[in-house]
Amino acid sequence: MYIDRSKFSLDQPVSSLDPNRGTYEEAAEWQRHGPVVPVTLPDDVRAWAAVSAEAARSVLNAHPDLSSDPQHWGAYNRGEIPAGWPLLHLIVGESLLNADGAAHRRLRGLLSHAFAPRRIDALAPRIQEITRELLDGLESVEPEEVIDLKETFAYPLPLMIICELYGLIDSDQQRQLRGHFRTLLSVDVSSAERQAATTGEREVLARLVADRSAAPLGDLTSALLEALDEDGGKLTQKELIDTLEFILSAGHETTVNALTNTVLALLSHPDQLTAVLGGELSWSGAVEAGLYWKAPVRTVFMRYALRDTVLHGVTVRRGEPIAVSLAAANREQYATVPAPFDMHDSRPYQRQLAFGAGPHYCLGAPLARLESSIGLSQLFARFPAMRLAVPESELKPVISTAINGLAALPVVLRPASASDSGDRAAQRE
To answer: What Gene3D superfamilies has UniProt attached to this entry (predicted)?
Structure first.
């Protein structure tokens, strides 16, 4: 059927971004309309969605007619976006996510030293230690006992690491931050609850900044405070808090879902899990295949048209926003059918988009990959007979417009018939 995409506009969306709908079912529908389509986001917020790999790359790369700065968002400037809109606190923050050109390079440069390859590699021993501590805590699990692996392992691992990066050593503050963060990611809370969580999260980060200002620890927060205090003011107080908030959100949740999704992939493809455990395939290869099979980020928000722009056959008017359907674009060729998880063929994910593209490519991608590789290798070494506790069809997705993952991952770490082998694996650790 011929579709005249030149007549598409935000006045007549062709579909909606529904957090209750399957990511790839939705993507299949959108991609039938073309690479860029007008959609409705929650609360009737209108946006274009880039849903093909080519369109995603053109939006995420340094497009001369597009900006990351929300000051160019027409509907927001006109007061049409609800104050409690779930993603507003991140979309309008003064972080590198929402900066362009020299401003973006300045903010990214301040952070890049903390995520330099040698510094990331130097974190490996501590990541291994934290992973072992978490797995030690699961040693008391009885044969056939069901646990939520996301809650007990995938969630705390990256949170503990990012708190250490920040110099956030107070356990009460860590718990508060975790609670506020959960609320902000939920779609089942009221606008008042979300605003309270935003305030609470920023209060925790403000206390962290005050603590590290009084007693620097050589951590990321202390380094950013040095930039704040330098003559010429490389960083404002608001930029500092917004940047910490952004890294927490982007860096933590991405790794949680990368871990959870890849565990599911391996448990549902036992032949490939056996090959990895036997050394025929690598854990880094498992991470890449998992990122391609089910990218942890569903949608990236936003870019804004600086002028009327023709983009892949549609006209995006000045001030209109564009969201990138990252998970769909990442695995575009398999959008209409279940995508294969195939570690034997790395070609499909050599140019994958799981961590974005262009100037805003995820700064923490190497850390997320390292955490995932170490976490997966130690997890399966300790519990090689782990299995899903429910049929895969019964697993529930996260209800989110931004995240592509599972609400929970119920597993049996030690099936009764394999408890002895599991104990021997633990002793080898």
So the answer is: Cytochrome P450
